[in-house]
UniProtKB/TrEMBL annotation:
Single GO MF annotation: 4-hydroxy-tetrahydrodipicolinate synthase activity
Protein name listed in UniProt: Dihydrodipicolinate synthase family protein
Keyword Lyase: yes
UniProt-listed CDD domains: DHDPS-like (cd00408)
Pfam families: DHDPS (PF00701)
Family listed: Belongs to the DapA family.
Gene3D superfamilies: Aldolase class I
Source superkingdom: Bacteria
Binding site for pyruvate: I213
Active site, per annotation: Y142, K172
Organism field: Diaphorobacter ruginosibacter
């Protein structure tokens, strides 16, 4: 496992995926956006929840990873989401990520067959690890039970890191349950625990959190990165307060359409409003209010035109 004391906390953005009007992936806009996120100090958790990952085909994901690598986006700044219900597809996507030199993979549990036992989930992760068969694989678990209905328990974490201590190195906790995040931080020192919200940094960092993997890192990556660097200084408190306000505004809206709408405005590209069904694009009934709230908060994405 990574010695957290040896490195600084990081922010990763589950990078939004832009679509054309026909709902095909706009790979050029995707590359440009990922390049911007990296320039702002964020790593890339591409194919995360807010990337609309489960609306993307396996072939699309592999092609986008390859396009990012060809464009010179540093692979060591990427931890793509590779968890899929079909085990062969999860293995194939994980292999592709490892082959490209990605820093790790963020791997959802299979979520269709419920209830899923810890034995079954252990077997799923073990099959991926054994099939990929590379000591370069660094696997991050992804706990988001409100979407998957399949929790990753502390007992399962213990079992996985005992069996694969150099491979299963961390977790993103998107449960929204601080008590759960705190328990992981306390029970597994040296295990990289990433809360899913920058609003939790003031509580998580003192316990050794590895940073955050946050939806709103898509729109305030630089402020989060600055806050992480300022941890332990008076500047952190001011930045944390700013981060909480913006996070709260987005959390009160349909998150993915809201993020895409703000990115569309910031980059002057209305195409960013496109989402794949069953999601629905930002609606004027709330989108105008969202922009007004952000203006009142003096929010500036800093993307330029």
């Amino acid at each position: 496992m990574t010695d957290i004391a040896q490195r600084s906390p990081q922010v990763f953005a589950p990078a939004l995926t832009p679509f054309n009007a026909d709902l095909s992936v706009n790979s050029e806009a995707f590359i440009g956006f990922c390049r911007w996120l990296v320039s702002q100090g964020a790593g890339l958790a591409v194919f995360g929840t807010n990337s609309e990952a489960n609306s993307l085909a396996l072939e699309e994901k592999i092609a986008l990873l390859e396009r990012l690598a060809e464009a010179g986006i540093p692979a060591d700044r990427m931890i793509p989401g590779t968890g899929l219900c079909a085990l062969p597809e999860a293995i194939a996507l994980t292999r592709a990520a490892v082959a490209l030199g990605c820093a790790g993979t963020l791997t959802l549990p299979p979520f269709y067959f419920k209830p899923a036992s810890d034995d079954g989930l252990f077997a799923y992760y073990a099959q991926i690890i054994e099939a990929v068969g590379s000591d370069r694989l660094k696997l991050y678990l992804y706990h988001i039970p409100q979407f998957t209905g399949v929790p990753i328990t502390c007992a399962l974490i213990e079992r996985l890191i005992t069996a694969y201590p150099k491979t299963v190195v961390g977790i993103k906790d998107s449960s929204g349950n601080w008590e759960n995040t705190e328990r992981m931080l306390r029970e597994f020192p040296g295990f990289e625990v990433y809360p899913a919200s920058e609003a939790l940094l003031e509580k998580a960092l003192p316990l050794g959190a590895a940073g955050c993997i946050s939806a709103t890192a898509n729109v305030q990556p630089n402020t989060i990165a600055r806050a992480l660097k300022a941890w332990g200084t008076p500047e952190f408190d001011a930045l944390q307060a700013e981060l909480k306000v913006v996070r709260g505004i987005f959390q009160a809206k349909p998150m993915i359409p809201a993020l895409k709408h703000v990115v569309a405005k910031a980059f002057g590209d209305a195409g960013w409003d496109h989402v794949r069904p069953p999601l629905v694009a930002a609606d004027a009934s709330w989108a105008e209010g969202l922009m007004a709230e952000l203006r009142d908060a003096r929010f500036d994405m800093g993307a330029g035109q």
